[in-house]
Amino acid sequence: MVYCTYKEIRMYRDTHISSVSHDHFELNRFHDELMRHVVELAISRTAEKLGPTPCPFSFFVMGSAGRMEQAIWSDQDNGIIFQNKNIETKTYFIQLGQEITNGLFEVGYTYCDGGVMASNDQWCKSLSEWEEQISEWIEESSWETIRNLLILIDGRHLYGENQFITNVKKAAYRSIHQEHLLARMLDNTMLLKKGVGLLGQFLTETHGPHSTLLNIKERALYPYVNALRLLAVKEKIEETSSLARIQKLPAEVMNSHEREVYEKQFLQLLYYRITYGDHSNYESGHYLVVSRLSRQEKKEMKSIIRNGPHLYQFVRKLIERDV
Fold first, then answer.
1. Of 39, 58, 103, 219, which alpha carbon lies 20 to 30 A from 8's?
2. Distance between CA atoms of 79 and 156, rounded to whole angstroms?
3. According to CATH, what is the number of the domain 6-179?
4. pLDDT for 174-195, tens place per residue?
5. Residues 267-287: pLDDT tens digits?
6. Based on the number of CB atoms within 10 Å of its own CB, is 22 exposed (0-12), middle (13-18) or buried (19 or more)?
7. What is the C-alpha to C-alpha distance for residues 27 and 37, in angstroms, rounded to an integer?
8. CA–CA gap between residue 23 and residue 16 (Å, rounded)
9. H-assigned helices in the chain
10. Under 8 Å between Cβ of 283 and 241
């Protein structure tokens, strides 16, 4: 199907989203389909103004899109890698990035608050510029640049030259290990918010528009996501989804029983988010309506939430042991 406007893609989204909204894997394949349609239309529109793309490039996604862990609504985390380094080419792809991000916004993907988008020249670079950028981030090793590296590691190719993001991430992995930065990356993700209190109660929001709701993103998903990303870097695992990262862990790091437990628990978190989340908009999609859970589901949910920090502490000990 070829679309002529972003409005048509948005109508397709609104018509079909309900049919995939009860299955995590189908939902994320649908998000990929929508984003590819947007990129194709953006390329066509940019070509009408500026001519064809001047060289091969890759459009890649990061964040929950990179990990294939998007909910019903999602924001944008994306970038561009292009082959040739010159001012004219850079200008072209910045404008293409702007067209893509504006198109994604029209289709329903909110802009990234932190500006991690292909319209930002920090996230739209040639292959050689990306290698230089990684070196600069690692040399600085500030909280912000380490955070940028963590974001990049979730990068997944979506359109164009598949090998470009693979090459960039391999360069990042090499430099991280050469400079022994895993401990710094650990420090960057150590703030964990408890989801269950000392008396066994869910720690829901106490005020504001999401009062009485559980922030499943920060209090349940983040400990698993952050821990598995660090393990992926440590073991040089190139997969981006948390589930794939679990499956790729070598037996000497985590035995098969432990892998199965964490995989099952993470899948259940994704299921609970889709099934019992408040999906009115992107922001509300981070919150779980715990009153809708059965007694048994609440018991399971609390167990899963408690186990996330255990996984994180396990990873912490592995990294600190090697420092």
1. 58
2. 10
3. 3.30.460.10
4. 999 999 999 999 999 888 889 9
5. 999 999 999 998 989 989 899
6. exposed
7. 15
8. 13
9. 6-20, 24-50, 63-66, 87-107, 127-140, 143-153, 162-178, 182-188, 216, 222-235, 242-248, 256-276, 295-322
10. no
